[in-house]
Automatic annotation (TrEMBL):
GO molecular-function terms, A-Z: transmembrane transporter activity
Broad class of the protein's primary localization: membrane
Annotated protein name in UniProt: Protein TolR
Intracellular or extracellular location(s): Cell membrane
Family that this chain belongs to: Belongs to the ExbD/TolR family.
Organism in which the protein naturally occurs: Chlorobaculum limnaeum
Keywords: Cell cycle, Cell division, Cell inner membrane, Cell membrane, Membrane, Protein transport, Transmembrane, Transmembrane helix, Transport
InterPro entries in UniProt: ExbD, Tol-Pal_TolR
Presence of the UniProt keyword Cell membrane in the record: yes
Membrane-traversing stretches: 15-33
Single biological process term from Gene Ontology: cell division
Pfam family for this entry, one: ExbD
Membrane topology reported for the UniProt record: Single-pass membrane protein; Single-pass type II membrane protein
């Protein structure tokens, strides 16, 4: 049934469904992003030492404040270092190990981890530190 009025065509694109989908995706990414981070938090000591060249094939042994030890992304006990480290280094074809220990750890514990790394046959051990802030260097 014709009413006699002319219907006009809509010349604009309705973007409301697009905005809805984008907002849902944004919420999903905001919720899942913190879960995607791996590794552990290690606050390394600060030094005024200059940067050194690091071998990309080197292995990073991290020890956090709760004394958890990780080799790259794998957690293990301190007693397992001497046993597993040679096999890991052999597969990576690396010789250097970088020890990244939290600054709140007791000196004796860090030295025991270093001794375990030495027991594994590693001769080159580097200590990972963070460059100090420019303000603290002026003192």
């Amino acid at each position: 049934m014709m009413t006699g009025q002319k219907t006009r065509l809509m010349s604009e694109i309705n973007v409301t469904p697009f905005v809805d989908v984008m907002l849902v995706l944004l919420v999903i990414f905001m919720v899942t992003a913190p879960m995607m981070s791996s590794g552990m938090k290690v606050e390394v000591p600060q030094t005024t030492h200059e940067r050194m060249d690091i071998d990309s094939r080197g292995l990073v042994v991290s020890v956090d404040a709760s004394r958890r030890i990780m080799i790259n992304d794998y957690q293990l006990d301190a007693s397992e270092i001497a046993e597993r480290l040679p096999k890991i280094l052999e597969s990576m074809k690396g010789e250097e190990v970088y020890l990244k220990a939290d600054r709140t750890l007791p000196y004796g514990f860090v030295m025991s981890v270093m001794a375990s790394i030495r027991e594994a046959g590693v001769e080159k051990i580097g200590m990972v530190t963070e460059p100090s802030a420019p303000d603290s260097q002026k003192r």
